[in-house]
From TrEMBL:
Domain HTH merR-type: 1-70
Alphabetical list of SMART domains matching this protein: HTH_MERR (SM00422)
GO molecular function terms attached to this record: DNA binding; DNA-binding transcription factor activity
Protein name: MerR family DNA-binding transcriptional regulator
Keyword annotations of the record: DNA-binding, Repressor, Transcription, Transcription regulation
Record PROSITE patterns: HTH_MERR_2 (PS50937)
Organism annotation: Amycolatopsis balhimycina DSM 5908
Keyword DNA-binding: yes
Domain of life according to the entry: Bacteria
Pfam families from the UniProt entry: MerR_1
InterPro entries for the chain: DNA-bd_dom_put_sf, MerR-type_HTH_dom, MerR_fam
Length: 212
């Protein structure tokens, strides 16, 4: 397909497609003349992936470039997903040292009970989790952290579903791409389901409570 067809099929404007080509986010097409190239379904899929990462995942083009480089590299799916999760997590917000120390202690207690392993402090997901726990304390809502074990159990159940979905693909390339999509869209899907569930439970438990 030509550039115009590629744009129409992917829903990405021609000017943006050309920008992605210049930046190396999209591989070049097959040259048919000095000023013309032919593109394939793989280009359409890559453009849709970039669009999802930017619009749904909220990643910057710099982070998208890092993620796509990891996908196109020769690392294992596990290591590639680590890169994806790092970029999705982004830098952790600042919290007070006291609250961060308290949160780190709660997380270390959880690790001892669950046996989870990670590479800290390089892991941005860990840093963001510590910041969230610390913020809960600073706001006076430590009760949320008291249910951490139950939340960890739920997270493991969701992660098991995610990995089962990935294992259904035959090729490593498809597993890596599916892992990226599962991580980006899975976060949004689970958050949406959680919000809907909260609405239902809130109506049942809190709906009849009067204001003071």
């Amino acid at each position: 397909m030509r550039m115009a067809e590629l744009s129409a099929e992917s829903g990405v404007p021609v000017a943006t497609v050309k920008y992605y080509l210049r930046e190396g986010l999209l591989p070049p097409g097959e040259r048919t003349s000095p000023n013309q190239a032919r593109y394939s379904a793989a280009h359409v899929q890559r453009l849709r992936l970039i669009k999802a990462l930017a619009e749904v995942g909220g990643l910057s083009l710099a982070s998208i470039g890092v993620v796509l480089s990891a996908i196109d590299g020769d690392e294992t799916p596990h290591r590639t997903m680590g890169v994806v999760q790092q970029e999705l997590a982004g830098p952790a917000p600042k919290v007070s040292e006291e609250a961060a120390e308290w949160a780190s202690g709660r997380l270390e207690d959880l690790v001892r009970r669950t046996g989870w392993k990670w590479h800290a402090p390089e892991n941005r997901a860990v840093a963001n989790l510590i910041a969230a726990l610390a913020t809960a304390k600073e706001l006076g809502h430590e009760k949320l952290v008291e249910r951490l074990d139950e939340q960890a159990d739920l997270a493991m159940r969701v992660a098991a579903i995610d990995v089962e979905v990935l294992a259904g693909w035959e090729s490593v390339d498809k597993i890596i791409e599916a892992g990226l999509v599962t991580t980006v869209l899975g976060d949004r899907i689970f958050a949406g389901l959680r919000h809907l569930a909260q609405e239902q439970v809130s109506r049942e438990v809190l709906g009849g409570l009067p204001r003071d």
